Request: fold
Amino acid sequence: MKTLFEIAKSGLHGAERSMSVTSNNIINADTPGYSRQRVEKSPNGMQMDNYHVGLGVNIDDVSRLRDGMNDQLLNKKQQDMGYLQKKADVYEKLESSLVSDYGDNLDSQVGGLFDNFSDLASNPQDVSVRNNLISETQQFTSKLRETSRNVDQNSDLVKNFAGKTLDSINSMLSDINELNSSIKQAQAKGNPDFASLDKRVAKMSELSELVEFESQETSTGAVEIQIDGHSVVDENRAYNITSEVDDTNKKYRLRLENGRVIAPEGGQIGAEIEMYEEGIPDIKERLDKIASTIVSEVNNIHSNGYGLEDSIQRNFFDPSGTTAESISINKDLVENSKFIAASDTDGEAGNGEIASQIAELRSQKVIGNTTQNQSLTDFTIGTISEPGIQLDAANNRIDARDSEIQMLKTQQEQEAGVNIDEELSQMIKYQNAYQGAAKVMSSAQQMYDTLISIVR
Reply:
């Protein structure tokens, strides 16, 4: 008789525990990051001399249904996505700094400069043409300086972004370390902290968008995290990361408390560091190259020519300004446009040979590198087009990566997500199981009462 009571008692307990877990699943069906739980049961019994006796049901464990490998793959994809999205964001800002909607882009300014020299070659004595050349050149140098300053502003913006990203990374590492403590304590007591485990998964997912890392779970339940091969979260603590910025040489270094330098390649901060150290300086270098080439090439020709008023040979541009930020026209020419050299022979006012030679620079391949030189116009177009080209390439990769991420999320949702219909059907099953166990208990009580009445 005692066996019947024990069997019924285990059935009631098992059904009640299953109902509790299922109810919790239903309530958290729309909770972001929640992982479905399930009661693991096994039959209880004992072997007698000649037969086996069933003793009800055992509750072995409450399991958390989540694919850890899927989480790791998803984090890897999100690291790449964070990197690509940040690069796309920076290139989009650079594109808006280099290309306008009004058509007065740097390439048209370069073309306009040579157009005006061509006009001067045809009309070397026309003062209005000379004044127009001065005006157009000033617009060109102003545009180049403005573009250079815009690129510098983007560099400062990315540096500030990287600082904020680093603050977020340190905060998340600290949060993960605190969750590690809760998870370890719960596991040591044999009662897993599923809520903290879900929170840790969510934090690591957020972290994966910011920085590339490797992770592994220890036997105590804690998760260890490494960035660039160096531990930033271990069994006992999180390590703070600081930044060192060299604005002059455009270097951005991340350093751990122990002095070791880490260089993450993925995530948002990986893209920010790369753009600060390489992407933006490359654009700035190309702008400076345009400025220095125009100054040297135009001055080389102009300094051999003659103006209308004297026989003094002058530079067209200030030779000390050879960067996009410092380029400027010779002040003597601004004060008197008749000093502009159009003639290659002193005293020949109608000679426009020098101006013609400068105008021909438009098509000459005078800029680039030793293996592949380009014309100034083509090089300028390539410079202002580069952010747009890189942006398109990044967006194409983002689309592909997004498809992979959505596929992994769908797979994880199938494993860890809560299906309301399925849980409700399980609830009905557990209700019936509870009623059945109660019926067994009631029947056992009736049998016991009957036995007592007979004995009396």
Strands lie at 37-47, 52-64, 214-217, 223-227, 230-233, 241-246, 251-256, 261-262, 365-368, 373-375. The radius of gyration is 38 Å. The chain has a mean pLDDT of 93.
